[in-house]
Each structure stands twice: as C-alpha cells, then as structure tokens.
Amino acid sequence: MNSMTEVSWPSIRLIYVNFCSHFSYVGQFFEDLPHGLGQYLWSAGHRYTGSYRLGAPHGQGVFITSVGDTYEGDFANGLPNGRGEFRYGETYASIGLR
C-alpha cells in the first residue's frame, strides 16, 4: 500500500511517498512526477539526492549505493552524463569535459 504526505509552502510543494516499502521519495513534484529537488531512497539502501526532470534524475545529483560507492555530478534522463566523479571505496575516477 502506498502512503503519501504533502507539505506546501507558498512557492514549493514537497511530497513524501512510500511505495509499498520498496522505495520512497521526498521532494518536489510536477504533474505527479518527481520534478525539481528531491531524494529517492531504495529499501536496498541506495539513494539519489538531487535534481529531477519529469520523473528522472536530471541535472546535478549524488547517487550512493548501499556499500558506499558514489557518483556525484551531472545526470541526464536518469543516467550519469557529463561531468562527474565515481568513487569506489578509495578509488576515484573523473569523467566528462574539463
């Protein structure tokens, strides 16, 4: 069963949605899709915090896996794209244009 809590300020609408305990989202929506700033949390422990466009990570964000590996940088249509940095434990790899 999904649950939803909505909080509104004059210029922003934040919604927390728990989708059958598999993942949750707190953040801005547009036409019932994550849009603007928000955070997705998966039950497996992964999380994405950053910008969304029409339901998908788009713009600046940080994805952290359940074991702590991270990607911080640009996203487009839900995928890492552009400038960013992958971190696997103590190993770093930069990608994109300099």
In short:
Mean pLDDT is 79; it is low at 4-12.
Q: Can you walk through the features of this model?
A:
By secondary structure, the chain is mainly beta. The protein has a single domain, classed as Histone H3 K4-specific methyltransferase SET7/9 N-terminal domain, CATH 2.20.110.10. Helix content is 0%, strand content 72%. It has strands at 3-9, 12-19, 23-30, 33-42, 47-53, 56-64, 70-76, 79-88, 91-95. It has a 9-stranded antiparallel beta sheet, with no helix packed on it. Mean pLDDT is 79; it is low at 4-12.
List the helices and strands and how they pair.
Blueprint: E1 3-9, E2 12-19, E3 23-30, E4 33-42, E5 47-53, E6 56-64, E7 70-76, E8 79-88, E9 91-95
Antiparallel strand pairs: 1-2, 2-3, 3-4, 4-5, 5-6, 6-7, 7-8, 8-9
